[in-house]
Amino acid sequence: WADAPDEPVVEKDEPDFIKNVLRIMARNEGDTLPVSAFKGVEDGTFPPGTTAYEKRGVAAFVPRWIKENCIQCNQCSFVCPHAAIRPILLTEEEAKNAPAAFETKPAIGKQLSGLAYRMQVTPLDCMGCEVCMNTCPSKEKALVMEPIDSQKEVEAANWEFAMTIPVKD
Asked: Residue 121, SS3?
């Protein structure tokens, strides 16, 4: 590992805290940061939303949603400690614009008539703890753990699309 090559750094338009603090800390170089780097966050808090910039993909296995088995209880999403699995409701128009691999099923409930439902996993944020899978009350489990390599590419793209869908109250 000492001689393993680093992946090339791709410059992105990111907030100052991400570029000047978080990226440095992620490289285990936090001790090089001056005290002035923490101006405005002296209490040790991070600004909200920093995980959007930390797509690490550290889990060996991540959940795959089986739509046919899902009872739409959302318990898997409630218990996920990293918010790596979220229910998505789509209008007919939003569903038409979804990637081909973005499978949905009709949402259950009178108030959700006409909406499509999907439980979306972000494999790059998942820690592989299996809490979601073990919490699923469905007789035939709606989540199964799969190797991240089999899920990473397609589900990461599905996640990016899902995050563009407005929340339906």
From this structure: strand
The structure's pTM equals 0.80
Secondary element (H or E) of residue 159: helix 148-162
Task: Indicate the pLDDT class of residue 31, thresholds 50, 70 and 90.
Answer: very high
Q: Is the pLDDT of residue 26 over 90?
A: no
Joined tokens for residue 71: 């009872």
Give the C-alpha separation, 104 to 68, whole Å.
10
Residue with tokens 């338009």: 13
Residue keyed to tokens 């199964």: 144
Q: Is 64 helix (H, G, I), strand (E, B) or coil?
A: strand
Q: Running DSSP on this structure, what letter comes out for residue 111?
A: G
Amino acid making up residue 141? K
Average pLDDT estimate for 29-48 = 91
Distance CA 146, CA 65 (A): 10
